[in-house]
Amino acid sequence: xxxxxxxxxxxxxxxxxxxxxxxxxxxxxxxxxxxxxxxxxxxxxxxxxxxxxxxxxxxxxxxxxxxxxxxxxxxxxxxxxxxxxxxxxxxxxxxxxxxxxxxxxxxxxxxxxxxxxxxxxxxxxxxxxxxxxxxxxxxxxxxxxxxxxxxxxxxxxxxxxxxxxxxxxxxxxxxxxxxxxxxxxxxxxxxxxxxxxxxxxx
Length: 202
Known about the structure:
CATH class of the largest domain: Alpha Beta
Strand content: under 5%
CATH topology of the largest domain: Membrane-bound Lytic Murein Transglycosylase D, Chain A
Strand order of the largest sheet: 1-2
Number of domains: 2
Distance between the termini: 68 Å
Number of strands: 2
Structural class: mainly alpha
Largest sheet: 2 strands, antiparallel
Number of helices: 9
């Protein structure tokens, strides 16, 4: 009887049902992202989604349904991120002709700036979201680029630092900042992310 109880507990702790719905959602999300141009516009994100989907399919074939379910869910989220990045970049490309026409007009008007002194507990994300600055946390890359190399690591700022912020960034700068914020990934203080370095060189 004791052995039967142990076996029952082990079986109840594992996923024994194939994650059919999760696999279907992941496949549809990956396909939707690819149709939106993610292969070209968000190659890193769509590659990640496809790798996770492949891992989920391997788990399905081997009967490891719990890992297959987790990988399928992760693949769906990665594909949705790839789709979001692609949509942002498509908007940026569509606006490019208008930006070209406006360049001559903006050359004669120098940008204006404001300043913000970092407080304890601040991050670039929270500072960018302040209504007196951008009111949008996804625009934190603007602060990072404007204040580099004072800020060498976007994840690490200190109380007392005086940051400069452009009052009216261009549409191109806004779209570029948002696109970078969407693909940047997790925050790790102490190192400069490679994606941040690429953004600085844009």
